[in-house]
UniProtKB/TrEMBL annotation:
Species this protein is from: Paraburkholderia tropica
Cofactor(s) in the UniProt record: [2Fe-2S] cluster
Gene3D superfamilies membership: 3.10.20.30, [2Fe-2S]-binding domain
Record carries keyword Ligase: no
Pfam families the UniProt entry points to: Fer2, Fer2_2
Domain 2Fe-2S ferredoxin-type residues, every copy: 3-79
SUPFAM superfamilies per the UniProt record, alphabetical: 2Fe-2S ferredoxin-like, CO dehydrogenase ISP C-domain like
Keyword Oxidoreductase: yes
Protein name, entry field: Carbon-monoxide dehydrogenase small subunit
A single GO molecular function term of this UniProt record: metal ion binding
Keywords: 2Fe-2S, Iron, Iron-sulfur, Metal-binding, Oxidoreductase
Length: 170
């Protein structure tokens, strides 16, 4: 029996009728055509399916779509703003943090959530916290560089712009 689901996906309100056993990754890929969220293992091991649920990185292959009712889901397609790459996406490009790119959407989504959760990230933080995202190509070195660079760029973008010096009131 189909049940109804209402949630926000990449800032857009969405309602749908789904089977209760529909996984979030199936809903995103098959019903919303958001195919940037990849399926690597289907057993919560590889992180290729990582998306944000209310700002937290989760694996969409072990989350039922119905568990996301009333919540905000962001996928890799929702990161760019006004046609400009998210700073973390730009850092992956600039640091050559990808080869085949299969792991990249999940890696970027995990990295953005980590950078939000841990300002002032260190290399050790990145290596410890991204252990749920596997990459078969890069050897991780450039991914770690990219995450550190992207986190720094995110922090800089969130700083309020410097106020112009005002003339002394005297
Ligand atoms: Fe979800 Fe691998 S497909 S963790
Ligand atoms: Fe190929 Fe990571 S770039 S799996």
């Amino acid at each position: 029996m189909a049940i109804s689901l209402s949630l926000t996906v990449n800032g857009q309100p969405v309602t749908a009728e789904i089977e209760p056993h529909t996984l979030l990754v199936q809903f995103l890929r098959e019903q919303r055509r958001l195919t940037g969220t990849h399926v690597g293992c289907d057993t919560a091991q590889c992180g290729a399916c990582t998306v944000h649920l209310n700002g937290r990185a989760i694996k969409s292959c072990n989350t039922l779509a119905v568990q996301c009712d009333g919540m905000n889901v962001t996928t890799i397609e929702g990161l760019a703003a006004n046609g400009a790459m998210h700073p973390m996406q730009a850092a992956f490009r600039d640091c050559h943090g990808l080869q085949c790119g299969f792991c990249t959407p999940g890696m970027v989504m995990s990295a953005v959530a980590l950078a939000h959760a841990c300002p002032g990230l260190t290399e050790a933080d990145v290596r410890a916290n991204l252990d749920g995202n596997l990459c078969r190509c890069t050897g991780y070195h450039n991914i770690v560089k990219a995450v550190l660079q992207g986190a720094e760029a995110m922090q800089a973008a969130e700083q309020p712009a410097a106020q112009p010096a005002t003339a002394s009131a005297a």
